[in-house]
């Protein structure tokens, strides 16, 4: 019986040049990007850390962390996936002069396998143990990383990792999918528009493709839906 992941997450990560202090919850509220009251005071903020070198805050729907060279939005709420894209897109449509050179559309899945045999079967299938005969005693898969070329017109790659889950025990498997994009010419790139347009176009496809990849790895057969 095919099962859904017990835990999953989607994230949008930009690499570029950022001023973390700009990304205060009040900035998002002032631009109507997050819920706020009539005085533009943000609502539903669980924690806030705003310093010159880092901004880190969360709501019930998403978390945000910004450092000088990295902007990361995350959610564990599947119903918020489309809103996460809209939030990232709207943020850098306003801050369109912010230089962004790389983008990761990421998914993380944590599956609980029905028993230890099913858990081991994934490792046996992805990393056959006969190749390690005479080299290691009772070898087991601890971390597998595979990277493939893109099959579209964008610059970047797709990377998949498989490893035991630190979140689901016992018999948990973590699968991470990094759908990575880069600007065509970093030397000429002056803002965020190139990558946020890709985000707008590719987000839903990326979300669905990562789910299919994870299910295929877990069950050892290509999923048709």
Task: Describe this structure as you would to a colleague.
With 225 residues, the chain is an alpha+beta fold. It has one domain. It has a nine-stranded antiparallel beta sheet. The longest helix has 27 residues.
Biggest β-sheet: count, sense, barrel?
A: 9 strands, antiparallel
Mean pLDDT across every amino acid position: 94
Strand content: 25-35%
Work out the helix count.
Answer: 4
Which segments are poorly predicted (pLDDT under 50) over 5 or more consecutive residues? none
| Total number of beta strands | 9
Cα-based radius of gyration, to the nearest Å? 20 Å
Which structural class best describes the helix and strand composition? alpha+beta
Report, as a whole number of angstroms, the end-to-end distance: 15 Å
Assembly type = single chain
Shape: globular
Q: How do the strands line up in the largest sheet?
A: 2-3-4-5-1-6-9-8-7
Number of domains: 1
Task: Provide the helix percentage.
Answer: 25-40%
Note the run of SSEs as H and E.
Answer: EHEEEEHEHEEEH
In short:
The protein is α+β, with helices and mostly antiparallel strands and 225 residues long. The chain has one domain. The protein has helices at residues 25-30, 81-94, 116-126, 193-219; strands at 7-16, 45-51, 54-59, 63-67, 70-75, 100-112, 144-149, 155-164, 172-182.
